[in-house]
Amino acid sequence: MNDLSNYRKSYEKSELLETNIPEDPINLFNRWFHEVEDFGGSGEVNAMTVSTIGLDGFPKSRVVLLKKFSEEGFIFYTNYNSEKGKAIEANPNICLSFFWQEMERQVIIKGIAQKTSEIISDNYFDSRPDGSKLGAIVSHQSEVIPSRTFLEENLKKLETEFEGKAIPRPENWGGYIVTPLQVEFWQGRPNRLHDRIRYTSQSDFSWKIERLSS
């Protein structure tokens, strides 16, 4: 057995106090996101974990890239026929989480996912490099395949087929926007007395702000 009980560190880089937070969690997320980006320690500051409840009843988490966020919600893109796409279709209640180790911060977002408009999906797909576009077409995400060679050979066929041509977005590929219902901000602090501030959406479109025990 690998004993990890002595893996410890002291979190001392920042604090999260009620006297210095906005009334809207998106504003705080925006501030934290760009502070991490400016810090320069995270290779992909927009990397997030998406957790869903699968068709088998088990939760499953995987890392995807956040592509846009606003007051309306958080947008990412995927294959709608993938395991996560099927899970969201059956149960749109999902969780997003960000862990920015360099700033000793974590954000956990509970929300409801729904497909973005076709225009939003088309515009993002059109902005992607051709290789990424073809990859979205050739990959039947989450399905069992015989080998790596199978993917590579199919990609070569598509490269020949679409040489010099516009590459259309597959109907089964597009965006999801996650409307946040609850957003928790975690800031590491010394002696495990971490700061945890939770925003909960209210019926009047305001946010209830609460401090949680570490």
Put the structure in a nutshell.
It contains 5 helices and 9 strands; from the N terminus they run H-E-E-E-E-H-E-E-H-H-H-E-E-E.
* Main structural class: alpha+beta
Q: Would you report the number of β strands?
A: 9
Q: In whole angstroms, how far apart are the ends?
A: 29 Å
Sheet with the most strands? 9 strands, antiparallel
Helix share bin: 25-40%
The value of Rg in angstroms is 20 Å
Mean pLDDT: 93
List the uncertain runs: none
Instruction: Quote the beta fraction.
Output: 25-35%
Count up the helices.
5
| Helix-strand sequence | HEEEEHEEHHHEEE
Identify the overall geometry: globular
Describe the protein's architecture and organization.
The chain has 214 residues and is α+β, with helices and mostly antiparallel strands. 26% of the residues lie in helices and 33% in strands. It has five helices and nine strands, in the order αββββαββαααβββ. Strands 1, 2, 3, 4, 5, 6, 7, 8 and 9 form a nine-stranded antiparallel beta sheet that branches. A hairpin with a 5-residue loop joins β8 and β9. The longest helix has 15 residues. The model has no long low-confidence stretch (mean pLDDT 93).
State the main characteristics:
26% helix; 9-stranded antiparallel beta sheet; 214 residues; alpha+beta; single chain
Write the layout of secondary structure elements.
Elements: H1 25-39, E1 47-53, E2 59-65, E3 68-70, E4 73-79, H2 83-90, E5 93-100, E6 105-115, H3 118-127, H4 130-138, H5 148-161, E7 173-187, E8 195-201, E9 207-212
Antiparallel strand pairs: 1-2, 1-5, 3-4, 4-7, 5-6, 6-7, 7-8, 8-9
